[in-house]
From TrEMBL:
Domain of life: Bacteria
InterPro entries given in the database record: TPR-like_helical_dom_sf
Name of the protein in its database record: Tetratricopeptide repeat protein
Gene3D superfamilies xrefs: Tetratricopeptide repeat domain (1.25.40.10)
SUPFAM superfamilies per the UniProt record, alphabetical: TPR-like
């Protein structure tokens, strides 16, 4: 969707979410992160086709509010809506990578998809490659390499 078709109200709620995220990062306040989550949800309600608020909400949900299942659900919904968008794969892969070896195969699959879709100039490309390699080594070292199949 073009930026021009996003209602001003949605943009304002998104901007408030960005501001709350910034201050949440500065203060580590769960309450401010909840405000960011709510603001992104409101932005998305005014522009249901606009995926960026859902992406930002999922990041806050998974990393700051410890709602792993909710964040994975948000990222998965974004992937269903736009399977060619690399960013949700990256963010879901990062989230999986911090949830133990039982989630490592899912993280690797997401990073592989991100690397397939992302432009060569993406700033997270080298990190995704490194994380994928490290996760594969960890699985093999612990004899869990069958999860990679």
């Amino acid at each position: 969707m073009s930026e021009a078709k996003i209602p001003l109200t949605a943009k304002l709620w998104f901007a408030w979410g960005q501001s709350c995220t910034y201050w949440g990062n500065r203060t580590l306040s769960k309450q401010i992160y909840r405000w960011a989550f709510d603001a992104y949800t409101r932005a998305q309600s005014y522009a249901p086709w606009w995926n960026m608020p859902v992406l930002r909400r999922a990041v806050i949900r998974g990393r700051e509010l410890d709602d792993y299942a909710g964040a994975v659900r948000d990222f998965s919904d974004l992937i269903k809506q736009d399977p060619e968008w690399a960013e949700p794969y990256l963010q879901r892969g990062i989230l999986h990578s911090f949830h133990g070896l039982q989630s490592a195969a899912r993280a690797i699959a997401d990073f592989d998809q991100f690397l397939k879709l992302a432009p060569a100039t993406h700033t997270w490309r080298a990190d995704a490659e490194r994380l994928t390699e490290r996760l594969r080594e960890d699985l093999q070292e612990r004899g869990w390499s069958e999860q990679l199949d």
